[in-house]
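Recap quiz, item 2
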Amino acid sequence: MEFSFVKGGTAACWILEREAYTGVAKIAKKVCGDTQLVTGVCPEIRLNPAGCAAPVIIGTLAHSPLLQQLEQAGKADFSAIRGKWETFSFQLVSKPFAGVEQALVIAGSDKRGTIYGLFHLSELLHVSPWVRFGDAVPQKQTKVTFTEKDNFISKEPSVKYRGFFINDEWPAFGNWTFAHFGGFTAEMYDMIFETLLRLKGNYLWPAMWTSSFTLDGPGEENARLADEYGVVMCNSHHEPCLRHSEEWDKVRGENSPYGNEWNYYTNREGLLRYWHDGLQRSGKYENVITIGMRGERDSSMLGPDATLKQNIDLLKDIITEQRRLITETVTPVSGEMPQMLALYKEVEAYFYGDKSTPGLKDWDGLDGVTLMLCEDNFGNMRTLPTEALRGHRGGWGMYYHFDYHGGPVSYEWVNSSYLPKVWDQMTEAYEFGIRDIWVVNVGDLKFQEYPLSFFMDLAYDYEKWGSKNLNAPEEYLQSWVQREFRALPPRQKTLLADVMRGYTKLSHNRKPEALRPDTYHPVHYAEAERVLRQAEGIKEKLEFLKQNVPQELLPEFWELVYYPAMGNLNVLELNLYAGWNHFAAEVGATIANDYAEAMKACLARDRALTETFHHLLGGKWNGMGLSEHIGFTHWNDEDCRYPVQMSVEPAGKPRLVGYVAGEGTCTSGGDWTGKPLLMRQFLEAGINTGSFVLLNASAAPVAFTVDCDVPGVTFSKTVGVVSKREEIQVTVNKTLLPKDSSFTVRYTGGNLRFVLCADYAVLPQCPPKTFLEAGGLISIEAEHFAACRPGNGGAFTVLPAYGKTLSGVKALPCTASFTPKTAPCLDYAVRTTGAGVWTALFYSAPANPPESGQNLSFGLQVNHEETQTVTLLPEGYDAGNPACAPWCEMVLDQIRVTPCRVSLQDGINTLRVFALDPGFTLEKIVLVRSTDRLLSSYLGPQETYFCE
Amino acid sequence: MEFSFVKGGTAACWILEREAYTGVAKIAKKVCGDTQLVTGVCPEIRLNPAGCAAPVIIGTLAHSPLLQQLEQAGKADFSAIRGKWETFSFQLVSKPFAGVEQALVIAGSDKRGTIYGLFHLSELLHVSPWVRFGDAVPQKQTKVTFTEKDNFISKEPSVKYRGFFINDEWPAFGNWTFAHFGGFTAEMYDMIFETLLRLKGNYLWPAMWTSSFTLDGPGEENARLADEYGVVMCNSHHEPCLRHSEEWDKVRGENSPYGNEWNYYTNREGLLRYWHDGLQRSGKYENVITIGMRGERDSSMLGPDATLKQNIDLLKDIITEQRRLITETVTPVSGEMPQMLALYKEVEAYFYGDKSTPGLKDWDGLDGVTLMLCEDNFGNMRTLPTEALRGHRGGWGMYYHFDYHGGPVSYEWVNSSYLPKVWDQMTEAYEFGIRDIWVVNVGDLKFQEYPLSFFMDLAYDYEKWGSKNLNAPEEYLQSWVQREFRALPPRQKTLLADVMRGYTKLSHNRKPEALRPDTYHPVHYAEAERVLRQAEGIKEKLEFLKQNVPQELLPEFWELVYYPAMGNLNVLELNLYAGWNHFAAEVGATIANDYAEAMKACLARDRALTETFHHLLGGKWNGMGLSEHIGFTHWNDEDCRYPVQMSVEPAGKPRLVGYVAGEGTCTSGGDWTGKPLLMRQFLEAGINTGSFVLLNASAAPVAFTVDCDVPGVTFSKTVGVVSKREEIQVTVNKTLLPKDSSFTVRYTGGNLRFVLCADYAVLPQCPPKTFLEAGGLISIEAEHFAACRPGNGGAFTVLPAYGKTLSGVKALPCTASFTPKTAPCLDYAVRTTGAGVWTALFYSAPANPPESGQNLSFGLQVNHEETQTVTLLPEGYDAGNPACAPWCEMVLDQIRVTPCRVSLQDGINTLRVFALDPGFTLEKIVLVRSTDRLLSSYLGPQETYFCE
């Protein structure tokens, strides 16, 4: 059986009965629009199938006589969806009614089920959820038909409430919506609701700064429209009882019935009346009602002198009264009225209580309330439900961030989230039992299309993208590229995936707002150079795509790919050039002035990008690119600073500054100044080439010669002229090279001596995956363990592409704790030359302990020594608190580095790492001999040689 | 009786007998030259007075039959000078011989006495000692006559050997002498010897890098000429037995009779032969012979594993052998052969030994040897002879520095020494018994004319300039200006003295080589602005003088005044502008770019100054200006860096950065960012005006208004436009001003709130010299004590103009130690509002303890509490050791700041400071309440209000 949806310029007619939800009808029109976009033909919507040979019948169970009729006639069976949450069936029915040959029946178990069923149709038409908010243009098709193969019964969504939070909406979103829609109006929200539903979301926190959702529609139009669409509204954590933060200032006052103080002690009656009236006004719409109370504008309510118990008792009273008001005022849509309490900031402490003071968790007054947790604002889970609490009636929610306004540094510009991390953290949340609400702060929404797609799909279909699928982030990327840019040839899709993967990894490693000239070291381990090479590689692909993407796909390409990627990369390059500018300026090298020019070019490009965006599609997005995004010096943007451009006055006489590439010690001084430049790279097995750099610090070019009479050394050049910078490659034959060799660079005005330090003329015999000491240094990527031994109830597992360098290794299941005796472990093999004391640096994910008041630890055993427990968190550590310096450093750095002193014997040693607490994800181990010293760097030294 | 020296175009003829020293004859010719320069007439020199009616008779006792004849005839009496060291008589004798009417008789007790007598004549002719090396041009006189009033018997010099060390002679002196004299030749040294003798010096350490005095004359001509002139040669501390450092490399070798190793263990015979031959070659000239031995090129001789005793024993053996060689080889000019052992670096430790190992001081092998001490290379005395050692036969010498090549930072360019400090330290040396040798490192000699003049005059006439004359530095300055620039009108002399006093104070506070952009804080306490104002004041005077000084005086003015002063001030301004450049760049203010231009102008001026100098007088000094002098990053110059010029890209929207003048906290953020700008200056009594600054961080000018409704506040403007920078003065009437007032600066894009903190609407009644708390701060100049109480055997005395700010206060006599019970003391009165804990910071001179292994301390009593002993030196302190960070910081900063916690009561408190150890010189006391915080600065906060 083939159902002609569109064929020969004609579309099947659509049947929507009088009983259909108006919201469903509106969505049906949108999907008709999708159909027209794809096929050029807009289906006609009728009230009944009379006269339609092959209609599309759309209905919601219990709201559709036609569906009832079909089922009663045995033509269709909806028992698979009946009574379920947001499910739909999509099936071809033969001869459904008299005179009707066949029908496509889209039936929802409830309003949103039907809407998802409609958008399932859009999906089959290859219309992107971003068709409206992301200017996606679907491929044209002249003929669309369905067969029984397309029959589909949807599952219930994995997470009950799934949505996002439009936040930090000034200056970008706010200016944009005022310019285009006259404010935060229903005209604008229609676009947001539609997008949310297309993403199979159902839940929204609306914009809240200089905006009150229920007043700005105009009037209640926003709330009404949301309810019509089945969008469940909620407020952010500090806006209880369906009232908005900004509303209070509008109605408070000395003579107001609500009083003037946002203080439950002094103005209990006024506040209760305020909440009552809010519930009465908005309770008629579908909501998750926020309860609890915080001080005004995100602050704590009682002064610092109040005891924990006083605070808890106050909150209990508030919640009791609020819940009473809810029961009295609001009629639930079905069953219980969903309520939510955010365990955010100080409220978390009230929830857990302490040893002598029971917290809210031990109180029955929260029964049935969804408890909302929050990560640390930078994408890392904080406390998660303990096993005992997972059963809480009302369940758990998670408030996550792709955008954040706060310390240490705000990020509100473009996407800087990275799917492997989002996947890891949100699957962890799910596994810990957070399955009732997932909401993510998307700031202006614009430019968060990519991670938000993933977040929504993960929340909807955990079975597909969740913890069982370790490769989900990469698979999702591939499918997303296919979904959004279906029309591109495969080669371009590959490039586009490379771009998305590449720029998000870089922006994960350091958010653009937090980039500084000294983030990546300009010289050490050549990391700035390596990062620049990555960035330039991605930019090349981006530019190629921009030239080759078909015209109609350009707007979506520009918004979802080009601007976020190029914006990120350009700010990165700005800071890399600034780092080199500062480095060169500080050693007096005139190339600093060239780097300053490169910085200027980056700033000009940054401005041009926003300009272009604001003019796209006739100015559709004008205003949306206004966020500050360079050089935050603290959380707020008023002290943002562009990186300083340094310029250099050349010395009055010939002067060269020399250094070894990858190692930043600089000198202009001759041998006799006692500062030889050590080329230590040859101490690593397998490394036979390295280079040194000569920078000119004088006005005129400086001629030089390389003077070397050592056997086994060759240079890429031995005479030359340094205009600004010369990098000269040195190749050694370690079997010929004498010990302690050196060579000299001579020029008028001085000479520079370089000492060649080398090792491993002959490679030692070692078992596979044995790392060889490279002159006091060993650097190991976590996945290059020599052995991985499962424990009792879990095993270390590689998380591909996770973290800052190669990957992460984490003990799964992620909820499991282990004792040293039962723990899974990883063995790392290192071969040193000579016994000694080393510092082992463990680079692990910036995780927080999932249980309140706990630390994070892992076990470490060196050879046959006793296993030691290594704790990762310093005393007083407080995740999410911008006053906690170690946390701030860690979230910006995206890594936690934990040093341990270890004694290693001469020859082969084993370092065994045991999993203990959930959350520990190892990325890298760096070992430094105590007589050596690690160079400062952002990524740490590159992995050193190991035997295959 | 009037003696016509030159009259009516005729000069008296000069009589120099055949018996006269050839050196005296040569000097006589030079003084004839002086006479011609002044009068246009050159006297004729004859062998006898026959035919001269009124001759000038010049002779040395025991080398002049004429003098003998005069004395025998009772015409003259030389008993006052006979047998004395370097004395002369200058007297008119009536009818000395038959047919001779009168004579001017210049008689020397010895060769140098006669020479000084001749230069006394030059002095009377107002010919500067710098006539040759400083291009001084004396005033013309047509008539010179003398009367009995000019009769003069000179005193013996205060210090036996007085001279300087030409050192660190590359690149300046070396290039200069090669260009003009073909090397370090006698032709050049003639100029040096003459200058030394004109300065009444007698002792020289010759240049020693790429130069060997006794080989370069050519041949022995240098040594021969020195001897002829009576210049006593010596070598620097590590060149024993009349051998030069560079000589060794010329004669050493596997087949050399001297062997190849500069190692007394392995090459004893060779070295002894080397020294023997040196003594034999040069011992015939007048020398102070260096003994002892150090490793090659200023390093220690034995390895680090040798014990103290091994080192001492080795040195004893060396010295014994060297002294034996001297006795065997050298015939002393008179009495004992003068010998010198430098107690420098490690040799000092060998001298003092330790508890279990007697040092050289307890050995009789040094009897008769002058022991040479050295300050810390930065002008601060180190160990001085203890009372027990002062009687050492052979006496003591001091090696002082106006120029130094070494850590932490070399200073070899122009004068940066300050007479009050030189006076204080060299009188201390003298009082501690160092009276046999004074030698000062003058680097290239050029540009050290001013401090060297003082050094030589102090050494020659301690009675006049020494410790009894507290005002000697200022008096000397006046007399020096008079001596060098006699021809200037008084007003210009005053300006010139202001220039010398002013620039040397600034360069004393921070040597130009050690200036950094962050030396003076660009904002705190407005110190950079105050320093710039000083520098500009001096520059105005300099430019006025340059325009007005008579043409013939311009060369000397340029060399002795203009270049050193302008050079210093220009490098200072460069760094001040760099400080502002960096400060402005870091807050994103576009005025940074203007400061960068100012930096460029300073660098251009610096180059132009050297250019001009090199072209002066037809290139006479070409090469002498080549020393590096900007931005030393360590001791040697190869890593010198010009200050980095930072430039700023303006923000894309209006942005003002505000701060309170004198207080560097900057913000662009509105009130709600929680960063109000506090105007705390009004917390000080007597302060009713202050200002705040607005910097523009955006491209276009930004209009602002000042919004203030507080009574008692007026502004220099309340509306305006900030193009780059606006400073707005605020005047308050404290009696009207309400507590916690504030005002707001508004502009498109933000607003800035300033809070007015004020105190002392009514002044409290206090005794005179009581300092009032100024908002947690009290700053006291040391001389503003409330009482000065003498102790047993000494009293605190104000050293005018001493130190970094106003003056110093030091217990004199400087050799005295005190116990707390007998110590002199100073009382300081401070009135606080509210009891509390304070940090008292004692700013004292960067002195070192005069006794080896001791600390420096003073006593401190707060109100009636127990007196505490405050020690100034941290553990491991090692004066003169560039590896000792506290010492390095102190010598560059020219101050030592010692913090003490003190508890002060509400109301008036007394801080009593007791002298304990010699060397402690107090400059300033700053008190900060523990709840407040001192702003970083170079000079500390300015003195705060005290009751008159």
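Chain A has five domains: 2-153, 161-484, 490-618, 656-756, 770-933.
The first helix of chain A runs from residue 22 to 39.
End of item.
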